[in-house]
C-alpha cells in the first residue's frame, strides 16, 4: 500500500493554523480567499497571506487547495475570471468548486488547473461521479450522506477517480451543507458564505394562546438544541474507509482554533501511519481518541457511514462538555533549560502542564515564570505575552501547552 496514495487534509482558517496543520502532519490544507468561499467569517486569506501559506506548504512538499464553492448568482460572476487567474498565478494546487458555471469558467480560462468537486455539489451516486470525471475533474469530495457500501460501489465502478470524504468535525443539519435556515432567520445566505449557524441555536416552543410562555422542546427543564448534530469522528474506523476506497481524508474546522487543528491532525496522522505501516496487524491506539477529546469538540458519532443517523446522533441537551485540559500556550523556543512560551490562556506557578509536539509528549510542573521584562511572576500576564519558564524537557518548537485542570 503506497503511502503517497493517501492524503490527510486539514482546515486552515488563517496563516497560523495553516502552519500548525503542516507541522503536525497534514499532507494538504484547504482554505478560503476573501471571496467565493463558504466560510466568510473564518479569517480568510488575503493574497499576501495566501502566497505565504503556499510557500510554507510547498517548502515541506505539501499542497494547498482553495475553496471557490459558493453557488454563484449573476453578480458573483463579476471579477471571477481575474480571481481564478490570480489563484493560479499564486501556485494553488487545486480548487474546490461546487457550481457547474464556475467549473466551466475555470476550465475555459485555466484548462490545466486541478479541480475537486465540493461536497456542496452532493455527489451521491456513481453516475454523478462519472459525469464529473468526464468533465475533467480530478477528484470528487463525496456527499456526507453516503454509507461505506455506497462509497465502495462508486470506487469499484470508477477506479481511477480520487475519492475524498470527511472523517472528522462538525456535521451540518442540512443536505450536503445546503441550508436555507440562515437565510430565513438571519438574512445571511449559507450558500454564499454567510451562514449564521442557526442549527446550533437554542430553541423553545411557544403555544399560540400563551404568548410569552417559552417551553423547552424536551421532556425536562434543561433546554434543547433540536437541530444540533454530534461531531463526526471516524478515527477508529479508518480501515473501513480505506477498504471502501477512500484515500483522501478530510478534517472539518476552518473556524476552530490552532489547538484544535494541531491536536486533531496529530491524532489522525499517527493512526493513518500506523495502519499503513502494517495493515494486517493494525490495532487502534485508544489514547488517540482521548487526545481528540482534549480539543474543543461536541460528542462524537459516525455520521452516515454505518447507518442513517438517529436521535442518538443529535444533541438535545446544552453543550456543556467537561474538559480536564485547557490550551494555555505555544512553545516558541526550547533552549538551555528554558521554554520561551507565547501565552494563550491563564496559567500560573504550581500548574501541571502537558507539552504536546508533532512527535513528542511530556509533562511538567511550573515552578517559575519570567515575564517579558525579565521579572519573576506567579501568573502568566495576558494572552500573546511571551514568557519564559524553566523546563528540563526536550520538546519541539510549536509544541502545544495544555494545563491539566484535574
Automatic annotation (TrEMBL):
InterPro entries: Peptidase_U32, Peptidase_U32_C, RibuloseP-bd_barrel, RNA/ubiquinone_mod_enzymes
GO MF: peptidase activity
Keywords attached to this entry: Hydrolase, Protease
Record has Hydrolase as a keyword: yes
Biological processes annotated in GO: proteolysis
One Pfam family linked to the record: Peptidase_U32
Stretches assigned to the Peptidase family U32 C-terminal domain: 325-402
SUPFAM superfamilies, alphabetized: Ribulose-phoshate binding barrel (SSF51366)
UniProt xrefs under PROSITE patterns: PEPTIDASE_U32 (PS01276)
Protease listed as a keyword: yes
UniProt record similarity statement: Belongs to the peptidase U32 family.
UniProt protein name: Peptidase U32
Naturally occurring in which organism (per UniProt): Natranaerobius trueperi
Amino acid at each position: 500500500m503506497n503511502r503517497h496514495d493517501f492524503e490527510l487534509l486539514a482546515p486552515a482558517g488563517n496563516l497560523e493554523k495553516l502552519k500548525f496543520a503542516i507541522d503536525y502532519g497534514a499532507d494538504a490544507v484547504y482554505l478560503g480567499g476573501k471571496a467565493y468561499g463558504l466560510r466568510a467569517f473564518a479569517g480568510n486569506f488575503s493574497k499576501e497571506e495566501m502566497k505565504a501559506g503556499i510557500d510554507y506548504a510547498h517548502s515541506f512538499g505539501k499542497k494547498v487547495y482553495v475553496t471557490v464553492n459558493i453557488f454563484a448568482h449573476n453578480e458573483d460572476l463579476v471579477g471571477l475570471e481575474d480571481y481564478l487567474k490570480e489563484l493560479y498565478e499564486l501556485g494553488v494546487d487545486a480548487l474546490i468548486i461546487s457550481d457547474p458555471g464556475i467549473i466551466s469558467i475555470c476550465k475555459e480560462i485555466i484548462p490545466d488547473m486541478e479541480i475537486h468537486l465540493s461536497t456542496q455539489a452532493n455527489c451521491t451516486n456513481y453516475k454523478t461521479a462519472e459525469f464529473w470525471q468526464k468533465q475533467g475533474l480530478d477528484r470528487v469530495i463525496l456527499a456526507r450522506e453516503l454509507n461505506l457500501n455506497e462509497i465502495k460501489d462508486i470506487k469499484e465502478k470508477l477506479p481511477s477517480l480520487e475519492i475524498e470524504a470527511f472523517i472528522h468535525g462538525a456535521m451540518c443539519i442540512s443536505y450536503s451543507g445546503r441550508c436555507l435556515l440562515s437565510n430565513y432567520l438571519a438574512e445571511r445566505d449559507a450558500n454564499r458564505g454567510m451562514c449564521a449557524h442557526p442549527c446550533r441555536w437554542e430553541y423553545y416552543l411557544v403555544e399560540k394562546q400563551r404568548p410569552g410562555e417559552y417551553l423547552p422542546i424536551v421532556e425536562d427543564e434543561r433546554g434543547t438544541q433540536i437541530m444540533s448534530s454530534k461531531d463526526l469522528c471516524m478515527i477508529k474506523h479508518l480501515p473501513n474507509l480505506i477498504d471502501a476506497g477512500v484515500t483522501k481524508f478530510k478534517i472539518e474546522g476552518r473556524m476552530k482554533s490552532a489547538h484544535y487543528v494541531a491536536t486533531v491532525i496529530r491524532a489522525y496522522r499517527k493512526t493513518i501511519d500506523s495502519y499503513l505501516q502494517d495493515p494486517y496487524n493494525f490495532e487502534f491506539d485508544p489514547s488517540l481518541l482521548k487526545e481528540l477529546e482534549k480539543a474543543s469538540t461536541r460528542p462524537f458519532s459516525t455520521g452516515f457511514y454505518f447507518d442513517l443517523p438517529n436521535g442518538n446522533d443529535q444533541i438535545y441537551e446544552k453543550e456543556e462538555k467537561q474538559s480536564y485540559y485547557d490550551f494555555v500556550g505555544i512553545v516558541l523556543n526550547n533552549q538551555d533549560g528554558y521554554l520561551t512560551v507565547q501565552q494563550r490562556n491563564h496559567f500560573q506557578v504550581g500548574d501541571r502542564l502537558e507539552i504536546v509536539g508533532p512527535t513528542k509528549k511530556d509533562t511538567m510542573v511550573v515552578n517559575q515564570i519570567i515575564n517579558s521584562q525579565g521579572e519573576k511572576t506567579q501568573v502568566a500576564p495576558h494572552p500573546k505575552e511571551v514568557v519564559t519558564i524553566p523546563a528540563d524537557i526536550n520538546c519541539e518548537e510549536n509544541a502545544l501547552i495544555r494545563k491539566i485542570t484535574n
